[in-house]
Design a protein that fits this description.
Number of strands: 0
Structural class: mainly alpha
Oligomer: single chain
Shape: elongated
Number of helices: 2
Order of helices and strands: HH
Helix content: over 70%
Radius of gyration: 21 Å
């Protein structure tokens, strides 16, 4: 069995949490983007079919989904950036 040098082992230990954080971020951003697109896009398409207003409501739904997704992504990235860049003592008492 091949053993790692202490330096190499520390490098791998420091990479693993960063990898998990990246995967968690990608998963969360996927949901933040996909849920509004599916919800508002398909709802708009259904309402267009029902009222005969094609493609107005579908495009409005996708536009609303894009705006909501952008806000959600901005908030998520801002929270992660704040948590990873600032030391814990710098965030106390601030909202």
């Amino acid at each position: 069995m091949h053993s790692l040098s202490p330096t190499r082992a520390r490098e791998q230990e420091s990479i693993f949490p960063a990898l998990l954080l990246s995967l968690r971020l990608a998963w969360n951003l996927g949901y933040i983007i996909a849920i509004p697109v599916v919800l508002f896009g398909f709802s708009g398409a259904y309402l267009d079919k029902h009222f005969g207003t094609s493609p107005f409501l579908m495009l409005s739904g996708f536009t609303l989904a894009a705006v909501l997704s952008a806000i959600g992504v901005y908030r998520k990235v801002k929270a992660i950036f704040k948590a990873s860049v600032l030391p814990p003592s710098a965030t106390h008492g601030k909202n």
